């Protein structure tokens, strides 16, 4: 008994659904005719004063003429068609078909579907009311409040208020254009998701990505796969990029590169900010700036690097634990250095190694070959034409140390030091004001003669292959050459001596020695959307989406790449028009006879 009652309940609960599915199409027409020979079982409906009207389960249709197969719950509409579903969808076209049993519609010829935020225009459109989806594959255009979107294939999901565009997708905005392989667009928010190779092009920038998000109304977005932003003279790359067009601002996270296409330089790190209007770049997390100078590359590494100024007036600033490295063309005598901060002006060719904070690890120091130079600040001057090192200046507490070829250290100190380079190699050094020297004197067989300690007003040192060749003393005050045995070991270092050879950088990789790898930000990617079910469901041969009297061959209502359906500009088939004319003529004659 319980089973029987349960079966009745199930049957009764399904009745409204069945009734709704088979609900008949209502209609109203000023003129109704029949032409059994041409359209068996059909009514021919025509406008006189009012348009033909259909109503079915919340959808209303107006047209000038129609062929209505009442028993099949199917009609074909012609001329000035308006179709409306509630307050959410309004559509116009020149031709349309509708099957009340499957709730499936087709429209062609100047199709225009309007939603609160968007308008879709296409040549032919399929509309599945059960799925609440519209679909075109012969090219379409969607006009949004901010942009116009076109594509070869498009699908609209009404419940999500989402368009999915594929194949030759183009977004046109007064300020930029977007080209994409696939783009999903949410009309209420104006949010766009880009999939596959995509570009956003404007007068001032070009964005490329293979996975990204863009807010078409706020003009900002982020990109997470093979992404880069090209400005006039800079290229920004990274695992994740953020872009704000209104502020001309971009940032990059993880494995980033900023390439200066004019000055042949680049900066790398794991976080960067670029302000186009200010011509500035900020970079941190293993920041490294590299610029080509006379076919060699100068590397600058620090906690933070800032680059400002127009291309011809670039200024590089590095802060906290600055390290520099530059190889000569032979690769045998690299130059390297350390300081708290660095300032490099590419226009003047001046680079300053300075201390400006308590975070510094001692005085600035520079190594040229085996020669260590230190002081309160160090200035390097490059020839802006040849980009070769020209000279260097060490201010206050200048100290030059060179490790002796066998033992001990050759040392020279004074208030200021000036060094001169030839082909990027240290050739001569002059030390002025209260100079002291201590050097190991050897004969031609490299035998130690003694240790010379001298006071002078100034000293000139000549180098050959990075080794001290000659020393000239000016206004010598005091000097002695003492046998090694008679020179106390505790007196073999001048006051202020600080050999920092363990800090010397011998390779590009050495720039990061002793540093922990930065903790990288976990990037939230953009997943590929789930593939939607095919628009056209597989159906039995006798179960048609439209009707056997449809102008569309059932093969058209299959899932395939593109269509080339074109609307034939006929208000009504000639046979229907002829039938109407004949009927009017008969009616007019009958009226006259009366």
From TrEMBL:
<protein>
    <submittedName>
        <fullName>OstA-like protein</fullName>
    </submittedName>
</protein>
<feature type="signal peptide">
    <location>
        <begin position="1"/>
        <end position="19"/>
    </location>
</feature>
<dbReference type="InterPro" id="IPR005653">
    <property type="entry name" value="OstA-like_N"/>
</dbReference>
<dbReference type="Pfam" id="PF13100">
    <property type="entry name" value="OstA_2"/>
</dbReference>
<keyword id="KW-0732">Signal</keyword>
<feature type="domain" description="Organic solvent tolerance-like N-terminal">
    <location>
        <begin position="47"/>
        <end position="181"/>
    </location>
</feature>
